[in-house]
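Hello forum,

I keep getting stuck at the same step: I have a sequence, I want structure tokens, and every attempt I make locally crashes halfway through. Rather than fight my setup again tonight, could one of you with a working pipeline run this one for me? It's a single chain of 349 residues.
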Amino acid sequence: MFTGTRPAPTRFLRHLPQVAVATVAALALSACGGGTEKTEAKPEATAGTEGTAAAFPVTVQHKYGSTTIDKAPQRVVTLGLSDQDAVLALGIKPVGAVDWFKEDPYGKWPWTKDKWGSTKPEIVGERDEYNIEKIAALKPDLVIAQYSGMKKEQYDTLSKFTKVVAQPQGVPDYGASWQVMTRQIGKSLGRTAETDKLIADIDARFKAARDKHPEWATKTLVVADSFEAGKYSAFTKTDPKAIFFKELGFQAKPEIDSLAKPGWNVAELSAEKLNVLDVDRLVWVTSSTDANDRIKAEPLYKKLKVHQEKRDLFVPYQGPDIGAAFSFNTVLSIPYAIDEIEPLLTAVK
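Reply #2:
Ran it on my machine without issues. Output:
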């Protein structure tokens, strides 16, 4: 069973079942009063909206067109795997969210625990398989799907009863930068100025790390993992993990991208191909010491200079949650990831 060290490579996204659009839409419309009707009951507020009213209406462009949001959303559902972080950072607790590969998206990670508190969102799906009935029952006034692979039919169904901001246009699914996705979310919530400050603060954190370690700019770095003997993966430049280390100053290895199949953000490698991982810094994101031992025991891996010279680094996904932090690569998780990974990288000579 997949344990979650990949954020969302295409090969792990199961084919979505065909949505029974008519049935679901009917249920959704009855639950929410339709996409254009105004409900008389005032929805339960999940966060203060003071200071945002003047921002509306706003129109947000996305993969499936544009969505105009007339007033400050109060009941937000996030369908991207890490979208909830940016929404939380902007002071709103989503009423619904999707599961991160069977891992609760609330109250678990150290960078979001305090922001969730005792509030728990309804789980409305896993990855790109959404439970439309559950979403409708929450009566959202906005659905956000940035770090997602939302299909057009899903967008159309949801749009029958709520406002939907789908993934950014002009980039592959799961291929937009954290800055682009955060700005989309901030604009949707009417909090553009606050969003700009969040992004500027994170950019400053990255710059401070680069300034402190100018030597990183001369080093190539690859992030990899392995889930079973003889099978290995390296992440391409569009993966959040690779993006994180690039912003720390490290150089990517273009050959990784050339080995990945079209539409994938990971290159699959056999043991015979492990020589592509012979870089200045090799970061393994693993879920157990057993996996670490198995990788180190691979005869062809033992021949790599990066291993022989102890320039490889094994980072846990959880406990501490370092791998998870740079896998999310959000405005909330990045500061935690920088603080945790810096001493580990400087210990590798």
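The chain is about 35% helix and 15% strand. If your local run keeps crashing, start a new thread with the error log.
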